[in-house]
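User: Please predict the structure of the protein below. I'd like the answer in structure-token form so I can feed it into my own downstream comparison script.

Assistant: Understood. Taking the following sequence of 291 residues as input:
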Amino acid sequence: MKALFLALFMLAASAQAAITVVDDAGARVTLARPAQRVISMAPHITELLFAAGGGARIVGAMNYSDYPAAARSIPPIGSNSQIDIERVIATKPDLLIVWQSGNTARQIAQLQGLGIPVFHSEPRKLDEVATSLLRFGQLLGTEATAQTAAGAYRAKLTALRTRYASRPPVTVFYQAWDSPLYTLNGEQIASDAIRACGGRNIFGDLKTVAPQVGVEAVVQRDPEAIVGGKLYTPQDRGLSIWLPYKGMTAVRRNNLFTLDEELLTRPGPRVVDGAAALCARLDEARSRRVR
């Protein structure tokens, strides 16, 4: 009887220790205990893990995981085009966190085939960054740190929305790349930042997250502001491609704004800082209206 009681006690304790969290794909991910060895399959996941208190538990990360500074010393396990599965196995992870928009279906299938719990991270709205922090805190058993980070993030976001959301709308073209010309639709987190600033993405209605568009289509929709990222090589033309179109509202009013695209498109805690910089620029566009 004593042995039976002990067995039942152990079973109950084990069931109580299990952690179940619903991921961004709607799947229930269950861990027997808080994750100790995590692989991050995207830069935004790395940032979220550090902010949630789990940076020291990341045993492998995808390329471009460069923030915070400590992330640069994490062993790489692959790139957007290829994963080193042998290296993944060698790290002995107990949790894999993937990004469906950045990892190919083949890569995710490879990882799922390893029999290791896989969590999908796909924050597409500003509010979902705080939700992600809390979920990561659950997975890692670092709830206190995650709750503090989520609270600080939400406070900054609320202040931003309170200040800008009721401002007169500004039509915006977000230039993700200049050659070929790519933009982002309303499902990407940068578009939610535009909305928080009282702006409207002129291609927010397109179905593809990162669609290719034509110059003529942008000229026809005539945005009041054009926003793009910094230049990386001497060959990058950036927003200068619009200078010949002097009849466009954004060009005529000098509303061509270069921002740090990582802060706007990478759905980690710093996205609220990118949104604040964007809001300030859209206010500049409002100030240049003819009165």
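That's the full token string. The longest strand covers residues 170-175.
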